[in-house]
Amino acid sequence: MKKLAWIAVILSIVGAVFLGLGIAAGGLEAANSIDGIQIGNSSSTKMVHQDKIIDKDFHTIKVNAGDMDVKVVTSKDAQAHISYGVLKEKGKLPFTWKVQDQELIVQEKKDNKVGFFFATTTEENTITISVPQQKEVKLDLEGEDGDYEINRLNLSNLDLISSSGDITVKDCSIQSSQIQSEDGDIEIKDSFLNQSKIHSEDGDMALTGISLQTKLDVESENGDIDCQVKDIEKMNIHASSENGDISYQRKDYASNFNQKGNGAWIKVKSEDGDICLK
Questions:
Q1: Residues with Cβ < 8 Å from 224, sequence gap 6 or more?
Q2: Which residues neighbour 136 within 8 Å (Cβ) at sequence distance 6 or greater?
Q3: pTM for the model
Q4: Of 120, 151, 216, 237, most Cβ neighbours within 10 A?
Q5: Which long-range contacts (CB under 8 A, 24 or more apart) does 114-117 make?
Q6: Residue 194 and residue 140 in one domain
Q7: Using CA atoms, how far apart are residues 250 and 248, in angstroms rounded to an integer?
Q8: Closest C-alpha among 6, 153, 129 to residue 70
């Protein structure tokens, strides 16, 4: 029994030593975070909601949001706003924003850990930028796991890069756009597109109610493409799928479909997915 007791004492001492070393190396911080999800009490962290008027003029919106969800929408009044519902830790916001040289710049802090506190909140960090209805702006957006929603805007240019978040564009007029997604779905609905290039590595794309003026180039490496364009029967079309079916106006075709017209150009390509044109 004495031998077992001594072994228990020795193990306790060794455990205490390793615990101290772990804390010194930042173990408590790691223990309070699992895959970016923070676990702890709400004394130093809480969800805050705020709306602020942007009183400086801007023509470009640049957002690097990381894991935060971002919405860029039409304002309900004649002013621009930035509103957010975010997890504020130790009195600090997980992002910064400023207007400089007529650019609205929103940047997630590099040390930000987006997450929730068990039994406290499951809300996602969300930033909403509201733009007056008649204002034309340029959007330059980049994110990782967060979703993007763009609604009822007049855009001179849209550059959007997303790692694994979903992208939704509705009721917009866009002169030029380049959209890239690694692992997320893309939906564009009831919008005017002049020139647009859309690429997805692993996600489905749905374009419905599209008014096209010049050119639409859509490519997916591993996902289905559903493309509904007004007056599509007048368009020049080239569609190809290496390992999928092609449907045009409810008729099925092999791996390629071509149509000559006197309207805009539509190019659709999928390496491993079905294509539906109508």
A1: 204, 205, 244, 270, 273, 274, 275, 276
A2: 59, 154, 155, 156
A3: 0.81
A4: 216
A5: 114/36, 114/66, 114/67, 114/68, 114/87, 115/33, 115/36, 115/37, 115/38, 115/39, 115/87, 116/37, 116/38, 116/87, 117/38, 117/39, 117/40, 117/41, 117/42, 117/45
A6: no
A7: 5
A8: 129
Residues 215, 209: Cα–Cα separation, whole Å: 15
DSSP 250-275: TEEE-SEEEE--SS-EEEEEESSS-E
Taking residues 103-118, report their average pLDDT. Answer: 69
Q: Which residue has the higher pLDDT, 134 or 259?
A: 259
pLDDT tens, position by position, 19-45: 454 444 444 443 343 344 444 444 577
Side-chain-side CA neighbours of residue 278 (13 Å): 10
Place of tokens 């805050």: 48
Same domain (yes/no): 192, 144: no
Task: Select from 197, 189, 188, 136 the least CA-distant residue to 161.
Answer: 197
Domain with residue 78: its CATH number is 2.160.20.120
Give me the domain span that covers residue 144: 44-149
Structure-block tokens of residue 163: 């790692």
Which residues, at least 6 apart from 76, have a Cβ–Cβ distance to it below 8 Å? 130
Kindly tell me the sign of the dihedral angle through the C-alpha atoms of 41, 42, 45, 46.
Answer: positive
Amino acid at 159: D
- Strand 126-131 relative to strand 154-162: parallel, antiparallel, unpaired? unpaired
Domain presence at residue 244: yes
Q: Are 154 and 136 in contact (CB under 8 A)?
A: yes
- Can you tell me whether residue 110 is helix, strand or coil? coil
Write the secondary structure of 66-88 as one string of H (helix), E (strand) and C (coil). Answer: ECCEEEEEECCCCCEEEEEEEEE
In a domain, 37, yes or no: no
Do 53 and 131 sit in the same domain of this protein? yes
